[in-house]
Amino acid sequence: MSAAAPEAPVGIGAQFVASPRAMISAAVALLLILSAAAAPMIAPHDPFALGTFNLMDSELPPVWAAGGDPRFLLGTDTQGRDVLSAILYGMRVSLIVGFAAVALSAGVGTLLGLVAGYRGGWLDGVLMRIADVILSFPTILIALLVSGIARGVLPGARQGDFAIYVLILAIAINEWTQYARTVRGQTMVEISLDYVRAARISGLTDARILRRHILPNILSPVIVIATINLGLAVLAEATLSFLGVGMPVTQPSLGTLIRIGNENLFSGVWWVVVFPAVTLVMLVLSVNLFGDWLRDALNPRLG
Amino acid sequence: MLAFLIRRMGQAVLVILAVGLLSFLMFRFVGDPVMTMSREDATVAEREALRDALGLNDPVPLQFVAFAGRALSGDFGISYRNQRPVADLIAERLPATLELVFAATVLALAIGIPLGVVTALRPRGALSNLVQGVSLVGVSTPTFVTGILLILLFAVTLRWLPSFGRGDTVQLGWWSTGFLTASGWRAIALPSLTLALFQMTLIMRLVRAEMIEILHSDYIRFARARGLPDRDIHYRLALKNALMPVLTITGMQIGGLIAFAIVTESVFQWPGMGLLFIQAVQFVDVPVMAAYLMFVGLVFVALNTLVDITYALVDPRLRVRG
Fold it and tell me: Over 90: is that where the pLDDT of A94 sits?
């Protein structure tokens, strides 16, 4: 960007402290992630303990509205469930799916990209064609197909238990392609450099060269893609759950909560749908803003 | 050029075959068609006879050829859930989806282009900052949340517009249109706006980037030096040239919009193909899933190939790569 001024390179930490946008988005994201992780400890009620619900408490508005109850900060749903507690637990499910999908796609995509870039040949050709086809279709379509196939193959009674794995797989199948493409391109650049040649001449195995020498040098684009994809994965999970093919109502994610709230939209209980929706947008927005900043700060060559 | 055409068409056929194979594998191996199609009290012998009649005992490659042949003639079998030919179901739902996509595209262009021009001409203005901020939040807001918020505002609170369905439709041959009735127009307002937002940001950014680049080019400087009025420079010279790539990209996005309409149709219970597909996924109605996949695959491949060929016609350098 700037005309190569002979200044000392600014460390990533210094850049972070200099950017209010990065600090605020990171703080919000971290706050949301931590409160999701600590949901069992900080949630005022247990949204799964059906016995503790009281129908008398159902459809209470948030505390600040007329008729609000101080026990339920963000109101209750049609069953008398505390909305705030449901959101905390729901965010936990959304983030578990998001992180697992990112870990799976980053792991598989990086591995395939390394091998494709290092070996080349027919394996590279086949992998990249598959990636082309997947990339040319919208995420939501492929994810729905995976979900539909899983429904047909898995035994009906246990589908609720498998839902979370199906979601992770459905999202990861879309997202590994970005890692694979970028890592492949970077690997092809790296193997022509002298340090890799030196490593080869000194008789190291291919696996060792890939893991110890090439991998550390191509990690920054992987980290950037992973951060941006966390937001995308949470969005995809929410969309699938909203469409009714994601997390079941017994184990609701933010998307499932919005789906439940949407069904009661016309009875005027707006808080049941609006608060989970706002939480979802805040989570995705903060992760996206942080990811954008990270991309500019690390400035990797993304393929 | 001919070699490029043949190579590109060959690629398109390969992708279609791959999508077809996936459809076939789903059709053949997800659930057991015989169990789904026969009566509950059917005997083993009857089931075996049906299995034979359906050709399910033939070698699998042979079955794929038969499947492809039927698909080519538009026969995708019978929906498990509706007990009607899948081709009929799709034909019935097609107009609703295409009208929604059309309305959304027009809306996205009508709002996206002016916003792009304004943000390009006054990049530091208050409106530009507002648009940038809104689009930042917009990118992080899933379509279904936007749809729900629109319903909450316009259907539940203000009661201006309906929140579901197509309103009254008029039958023109096999095509049912909602554009000829007042209730049809009212019904399409919210879903088309929801779907349009997805594209609007993209169009806006594209117009903005193109305009900024063109406004710095020599012919614009020359026009300014000649003393042409700003209005002529901005709209006659710059915008005209900026619109070319915008229209191409908008065209390419239509396939994406058809698939993306799944979510919008679900929020607004819009009776299109997307709603048909999502119901098929929920009930594991494999013939409908397979047919929808083939249809969308065909649209995508056709659009991509068309765009690539058009680019190659315009820019000879692209013919060498493949």
Answer: yes
